[in-house]
Fold this protein.
Amino acid sequence: MRLKSQQLLGFFAIYRQSVSWQWAGKLANLHAQQRNEQMRLLLTTYHHAFLAPGGGETEFLQLAEYMNENGVRADFYGHASRPLRYYDAIVHFSAVGGGQILLRNVREQGKPIILIPNYNFFNPSAGSLPVVQEHFDLADVIVLRTEAEAELCKSLFHVAHDKIVVVPPGISAAFARPVPDDLFRSAYGVGRFVLWVGVLDEAKQQLQAIEALHDLDVPLIFIGGYRDRAYYAKCKAAASDKVRFLPYLQPGSDIIRSAMQSCSVYLELGEDFPGHSAIEAGLAGAPLVLRDHPWSRELLGDDISYVASCEPDAVLGAVSETLTNGRRGALVERIKQRLVQPQTTALLIEDIEKYLATRAGGG
């Protein structure tokens, strides 16, 4: 069938509105790819980051992929990277101690430093403040994920306000694409279940979840392994026979996506803000139960069951209510509009471009 010109134009108009947000974004990024094809960025982090990798390290690794999708040459610092003079700037992930030593050397060689601190401004430890301040002093641009973090950063640290840019976090659009054949439930022989994805860590408060849900007649499944064997032992000792601890599974894999798409509740209760996994679960359609937090409210809104504390009755009540009345897919459109890659990384690249242009012009 041959289409007339008007029909063809109409077809493309409908197509642009109806295709997935990610693919529409890729088409929209063609110009950005051409514009950024000469930009070269070196990605760095602190030296012991990967001794016990977690969500932050996964985000760091994915950053190069999303930058490349936006037409930027992004390399990880190491034996395969080129000399520093080859790069337009470095992007340093985290403000953990040790990283500032590398940044001092970069500063001495006159290269711009873009810092993604990945720092918990909401519950900062007093001992971390001097180290984070030095990172901020060395950085030319500081990238934060929410306006709430930006305000806390300004109040906690001596930072020029024009150094700070806010770029929301982004996740893969793949979490919205169904995984066939109910992969996770078939593989692990479960029906309804409560899911938590992330490394076992005392600050994340998985132990409190285990104790609160001890008598719940629905399995609680953790995916992600542990950093501290002693904390893992405590969790195991407190767990009923309905609690399962699964090892690290590849982020973004079919099995992880299937777990998020098929869980009855996705749960996180950490004192700090939730990880990318909570956003991924929201895009996968899972009903969420999260610790109430300004970060979550700003990014995900109010279509979530929030708990004010980790008191057992509060946690059990929120999970039980969500098991009964939780609405699947409540966050999908919100996340697609604001928090899907590679578009959020495109925003980051725009901010880097603006800074480099200003610097080149003597601003």
